[in-house]
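User: What would this chain look like folded?
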Amino acid sequence: MNFQETILEPHPISDNEFAKFQRFIYEAAGITMADSKKALVTGRLSKRLKALGLDTFSEYFSLIHSGQHPFEVQTAVDLLTTNETYFFREIKHFEFLRAQVLAARSRPQPYRVWSAASSTGEEAYSMAMVLADCMQTTPWEVLGTDISSLVIAGARNALYPMERGRHVPDTYRIRFCRKGTGDYEGHFLVDRHLRSHVNFQQVNLNQALPELGQFDIVFLRNVMIYFSNETKREVAARVIATIKPGGYFCVGHSESLHDISTAVQMVAPSIYQKAI
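Assistant: Here's the prediction, encoded as structure tokens.
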């Protein structure tokens, strides 16, 4: 007689268990998770329950809440915060970046930009393509940060499915993207020289920031819509403190800093400038 191992599915997540994870991700990342995300939480965490041999979401919550498994805490944060993005998303911000870079390309000081919620790196590399195209002798650098260690690792690899690059301008695709072959068929790799100007670092915007230096432009887009107003004010204050006088802060087109900060003034929809 042949016996097959039976793999049990975790029990469905209860309202009480879901509420625990809502509090968890708010305390860890400042993200307010809507009740409509219950299916997303179930789907993303079920794999971890299976991998760990746990039967209920309460058992998994007790594991990460115990303080004895920091790696698993980070894994849970990674699973609950990872969002898909793509190159040159919200193109008007990159057109604005290009105009600012062209105006500054003869200065001797380095031009620094920050992709503050860089996810898997598409935004940071998009910024880098603009800078590489426009800068002449002025040194430049891009910093990409995210709360998720998982997506930061992917960003450093700089390998993407071809469909992720569908919005990359043709001239940039030819200059900065290397088409994969063999095992990497259907993917492209960001050019090595471009990658050398882009650094990635794990940063939680909901906590005191490490020493990052000062930036000419910061992108923090499509993230603060998940924050409470109090968290928005705290995060905005931390980010604005890193912007040079006269520098710019770009948020998502559906976001606003109205009633969030008086330290910056809107110069165009979703684009704010710090006072000189």
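The chain has two domains: 15-81, 91-274. If you want, I can go into more detail on any region.
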